[in-house]
Amino acid sequence: MPHSTSLDGSPLLHVDLTDPRVHAEQDLRPLFGKLRAGRPVAWHPPHSSGTRGFWVVTRHADMTAVCRDADRFVSTGGNVLSTLLVGGDSASGRMLAVSDGNRHNRLRRLLWQALTPGALASLQERIFAATKALIATALEKGDIDFARDVAAHIPLTAICDLLGVPEADRPFILRHTSAALSSESAQEATAAGTRLSQGELLLYFARLARIRRNEAQDDLITLLARGTVDGERLTDDEVVFNCYSLILGGDETTRLAMISGVRALMEHPDQWRALKDGSVSLESATEEILRWTSPAIHVGRTATQDSVLHGEQIRAGDVVTSWTLSANFDEAEFDRPLRFDLARTPNRHLAFAYGPHFCIGAHLARIEISALLAGLRQLVGGIDEAGPALPIYSTFLRGFSSLPVRFHL
Fold first, then answer.
1. CB–CB of 41/9 below 8 Å?
2. How far apart are CA 198 and CA 52, in angstroms?
3. What is the dihedral of CA 62, 64, 65, 69, to 10 degrees?
């Protein structure tokens, strides 16, 4: 039965959030502002035959409520539009991000062993040193593509170190993580292209997991391959799916936050000066970059029962999407949300989502962004644009694949 929600005057009649071009080529914050004010829970109708509609949740308080309620709004059906709208995620119940309940909690505890602040302490020093070296090299060159020459290497190196990916394989990993969730042009933004890269990553980790089952090392893949949940070893599929999730979550979103963060510093010279002169802390600057860039733009869930939210009847089986890109600019939560303010406090952004599925790699991401800001503060006198930034095309991620800049003393 079609939804009876009236769409008269709804901005979503004319904007298709399932089109990657919309996210790459438009600033959707004004649209989300209208929805927060008038339709905080809005029905997004199908814009083409063969697709389904979904709910769009835009307020900060409502996003936290949906993310917190893992009984009424579950992740096992998928957590992004690209899988939710085609019937679900093939890794459902086997990958941390698309599991719920006790299985999710126990798998999370296993992975958390490698991602606690204590476990990451030694890696933190290496990340700061490696990031400083990358920035020093970029400063010597002058003109660089910040996205490819600096940002591409920081989170990738860290997550590959944690997983135990050999150095020689890392260019392959970067190539396919970049294509698994987004594309560099509208022409390349095809389901077939993303599926190919996703398949390549899954096959790669299947091979590496088989090796680790027999030859243990001090890395996350060994932890997954030899660890137990409920007294049983993880299946091969569970090991592979969680490696895949960790490499994408640990690389893509942080890299995009860094790229958009540097672009924001160029566009707001007062905030660059505040970073340089030490009048803002690395901690508050990191949190504002996460809020401002919001690289993962939505969180998807499936309703398990009928419920009402802001007067809208959500039915069991409906897809419910909460939009980080809207919640992180909600006037009810943030003072002057359209101001980029590195000293902002409090800053209860939802870049890492909320509730049971709060990003397990949040501490690592914060280390990496802090390392970048520390290196820029210490070594770089100024940053200028050296060419146009090129956006990525995705319905889940937001940012740039290329950012030509000029570093100078």
1. no
2. 24
3. 150
Model confidence band, residue 330 (pLDDT cutoffs 50, 70, 90): very high
DSSP string, 9-52: T-GGGT--TT-HHHHHHS--HHHHHHHHHH-SEEEE--SSTT--
Q: What's the CA angle centered on 136, arms 132 and 139, to 5 degrees?
A: 140
Q: Which tokens go with 395?
A: 């319905």
Q: Is the bond preceding residue 346 a cis peptide, omega within 30 degrees?
A: yes
Mean pLDDT for the chain overall: 92
DSSP bridge pairs for 332: none
Q: What is the pLDDT of residues 359-398, one digit of tens each?
A: 999 999 999 999 999 999 999 999 999 999 999 999 999 9
What is the DSSP annotation of 259-275?
A: HHHHHHHHH-HHHHHHH
CB 44 within 8 A of CB 55: yes
Give residue-wise pLDDT tens across range 279-319.
999 999 999 999 999 999 999 999 999 999 999 999 999 99
> Is the separation of the CB atoms in 345 and 284 below 8 Å?
yes
- What secondary structure does DSSP assign to 282-315, as a single string? HHHHHHHHHHHH-SB--EEEEESS-EEETTEEEP
Closest CA to 257 of 388, 175, 146: 146
DSSP character for 234?
P
What is the distance between the alpha carbons of residues 352 and 357, in angstroms, rounded to a whole number? 9
User: Tokens 């339709």 correspond to what residue?
Assistant: 39
What is the reported pLDDT for 185?
Answer: 60
Would you give the distance in Å from CA 272 to the centre of its chain?
A: 24
DSSP state of 235: P
Q: 84-104 burial string, b = 16+ CB within 10 Å, else e?
A: bbeeebebbebbbbbbbeebb
Rounded-to-integer distance, Cα 324 and Cα 351, Å: 7
Neighbours of 302 (CB within 10 A): 20
| Distance, first Cα to last Cα, the chain | 63
